[in-house]
């Protein structure tokens, strides 16, 4: 399938959004809300929203491009502003989960408008949570397992909540420009 190319402004905006989401999440994950949740759990699901909007509009190749560039920008900044272990865990989890998200979304893009972003985000959230918390916090004397469970719960709730902005941002034409799934 042939996809339109983003303008330099659209590509820059997507990369900037991705960098801001990942950087802020890497910083906010260091601050607990309670014994089972950190602030980063609330911001990080927006990374999947950015990827899926780019994937819907410009295809999986451009989505991977945004993920790679956003990853490089965010990890470089995170290496300065966050502990090295968190930056490394974030980078690994980010790349694995974003590539999974892009692949699953692309396979489901021809189904109903909500199916691709919902399923892709949920599967990627599980992978991201397992990798990030396992690499970033295993062996630490912190309640990281409960943080991981709280983090995953919020990501799954956010996957549902972010369907509305996804739908509004893709527009009517893009939402109906798919083959109906029966």
Task: Kindly describe this structure.
The longest helix is centred in the middle third of the chain and has 25 residues. The protein has a two-stranded antiparallel ribbon. The C terminus is likely disordered. It has a single domain, classed as Arp2/3 complex 21 kDa subunit ARPC3 (Orthogonal Bundle), CATH 1.10.1760. The protein has 182 residues and is mainly alpha-helical. The chain has eight helices and two strands; from the N terminus they run αββααααααα. Helix 3 packs parallel to helix 8. Strand 1 and strand 2 form a beta hairpin.
SSE arrangement:
Blueprint: H1 8-28, E1 32-34, E2 37-38, H2 40-43, H3 45-58, H4 60-81, H5 84-108, H6 115-137, H7 144-161, H8 163-176
Antiparallel strand pairs: 1-2
Outline type: globular
The percent range for strand residues is: under 5%
Radius of gyration: 16 Å
Taking the alpha carbons of the first and last residues, their distance comes to 21 Å
**Under the CATH scheme, which architecture would be assigned?**
Orthogonal Bundle
What's the helical proportion of residues? Answer: over 70%
Main beta sheet strand tally, sense and closure: 2 strands, antiparallel
Number of H/I helices: 8
Number of domains: 1
User: Low-confidence runs (pLDDT<50, min 5 residues)?
Assistant: 178-182
Structural class: mainly alpha
Spatial strand arrangement across the major sheet: 1-2
Q: Report the count of strand segments.
A: 2
What does the average pLDDT come to?
A: 88
User: What is the C-level CATH assignment?
Assistant: Mainly Alpha
Helix and strand pattern: HEEHHHHHHH
Reported by name, the CATH topology is: Arp2/3 complex 21 kDa subunit ARPC3
